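Request: Show me your protein:
***
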Amino acid sequence: MKKVLVLPAYNAVKTLEATVRSLPAGVFGEVILVDDRSSDGTFELARSLGIRAERHAENRGYGANQKSCYRLALESGADIVAMLHPDYQYDPRVLPFLTGIIEAGVCDVVLGNRIRTRAEALAGGMPVYKYAANRLLTVAENLAAGQNLGEWHSGLRAYSREALLAVNWEADSDGFVFDSQFLFQAAFRGLRIGDIPVPAKYFPEASSIGPGASLLYGAGTLAALGEFLLNKTGLVSTRRYGRL
C-alpha cells in the first residue's frame, strides 16, 4: 500500500523543519506540502528539506489547502493519506499507528485525539477556553452523528483512499470548518471512524486561532451539525450529501 503524508502549511517556517525531521522513517512513500501563499519562506524551506512542495497562487484558506493536498495525494496513487499540521504540535510518532489501523481494515478514518484526559490536555498547554469549546462541540457532534470520538477537531488524521473517494469534500468549506464537515459526511456515508491518543504541546509558534475566530468556528461547526441532521432525516438533500 502506498502511504502519503500531506502537510497543509501557512507561515510554518519556524516549525516545519522540526516537524519533518521528527517524522518516523520508512512509513510514507511520499510527503507533500501545500503552501497557502505564506509570506515567511515556508515554501522555499520545504523544498530545501527534500519534500514535494506545491504552492497556491493566492491565500485560499485551510480547507482549500486540504483539498489541494488530497487531490495531489490521490493523483499520486495513495492508498492511505495522513494529514498532519506542520506546526510541531502533534507527536508524529503515532503516525504509523493511524495508518496501520486503516491498513488492517479496522477503520476508514482515524484521528489523533489530544484529549485523552482533561488533566493531560491542560498540563500540555491547551488553553482552558479551547478545551471547554472542544469538549462541548465534540459532545454535540458525537450525539448527532452517533460516534464516540475523543475529539472532532484534531490536526492529525488519516484516511483510506476509499474514504476520500466516498466523501464530497470538494463541496466543503475553504475555511476551518472543513474538518467537521468531512467527518459528518463520513458518518453519513457509514464510514468507520476511530481515534487514538496523541501527545500534543502548545507554544507560541504552534498554529492556533484566537477567541474571536474560535467563536466563528464554533458557529460554523454547529451549522455543519444542523446540515447533517437535516440530510440524515431526509428533510433536505444538499450538495455535500448528494450522490457523487
Observations:
- The longest helix spans residues 211-232.
- The beta strands are 3-9, 30-35, 52-55, 80-84, 109-113, 156-160, 193-197.
- The chain has a mean pLDDT of 93.
- The two ends are 25 Å apart (CA to CA).
